[in-house]
Structure prediction request, 436 residues.
Amino acid sequence: MATKNETKNNVRVTHFPEKGPIAENGKEILLSVKDVDITFGKGENAVRAVTDASFDIYKGETFSLVGESGSGKTTIGRAVIRVNPLAKGEIEYKGVPISGKIPRSLDREVIRNIQMVFQDPASSLNERATVDYIISEGLYNFHLFENEADRVAKVEKMIESVGLLPEHLTRYPHEFSGGQRQRIGLARAMVMEPEFVVADEPISALDVSIRAQVLNLMKKFQEEKGLTYLFIAHDLSIVRFISDRIGVIYKGRIVEVAEAEELFAYPLHPYTHSLISAIPIPDPQLEKNKVLYTYDPSVHDYSVDKPEFVNIGHDHWVYGNKKEIEEYKATREAGVPMRPITIAGEEGVEAHRAANSGNYVVDEDFLKSPTHDTGSGWYVFLSFLLPIIGIIAAQVFKKHRYIRNYKACRKGALVGFGTIAALVVIFLLLVLLSII
Prediction:
């Protein structure tokens, strides 16, 4: 039970309960955003960044918030960790309001239970601090260790779990690549053992191959620790495969929320339609003939019939007026999946590929590449010294999809065999010359 502290005007909750409220579908609501407005500036210069944002995030799920740059995604994420104040509305964690003024004990629990992974892995780390201190800072602040040996053990275990080595702890952030720095940021958040993580475009600044490794790490932590994610992104091709549910935001307003496959099969709001149609297709011919759908806000007439955020069934929420909601319901109840990506051009191209256009977005195996598939130079060197073992290791790596490690072992082994063959030939020539 939550601990309560009596005041003159109300009852203040000073600690979170063990579990949050239960939704109608039987799932536990961990975070709830209710009619939130966020405004920057005052008076005539005030800018409303978020308007009437409402959504729930269930425990253990990945809820993705997608939209174009400047739509208010990060603003909401920063409001969840109490950085951005609310102009209106409320944010609840386990049914307890965490926005506005709250008791210090509750504020510390928010910091302890809700962590954030930032978009820029370079600017989010203190360049003057070692990796050891960066990861340990939260442990120091909340004294989450019994003694120095316990702290070191926790930090070393965490740095290894994100694919780095204990010797990296004495280095500084500028000595690492972007992907490695993002791993450090992830370790800094996970060492606190949070329940909820706000991931603010954690892969947008990384190379494509590194993105898969970071996503695999996040998925691993979610499975092991039962984490819940608010995943902020603009790349729908990735979001589709990692999300349980997706919320679409346009100019600070949530326009559609649904399960991932539901949203891609039935992108009812025109803005969602436009976002999905903009996903690049890794096929030059298809991409060249793709018909890009452009969202035009003027198609909505809200002068008389005011819009609302409505559940049209199938746990699918859409923003629109009564006329639009009826059209959305009719489209959804027809049960015929929509085709937001349309391919024009030669006869037969659209019929052949448009129905499967979603499959061209991203190969799902992309997200299955192993975390420690680094192709390290040590594999090359050791396989060069022991080529037979190197060939065996290469086949093992290949079987388990460690492609970079497989190539490194194969390369070292082939060079090793070549070197041995050359030495044998030279030896035989010398023997032949000595006989002659």
Summary: Confidence is low (pLDDT under 50) at residues 1-10, 346-355, 357-368.
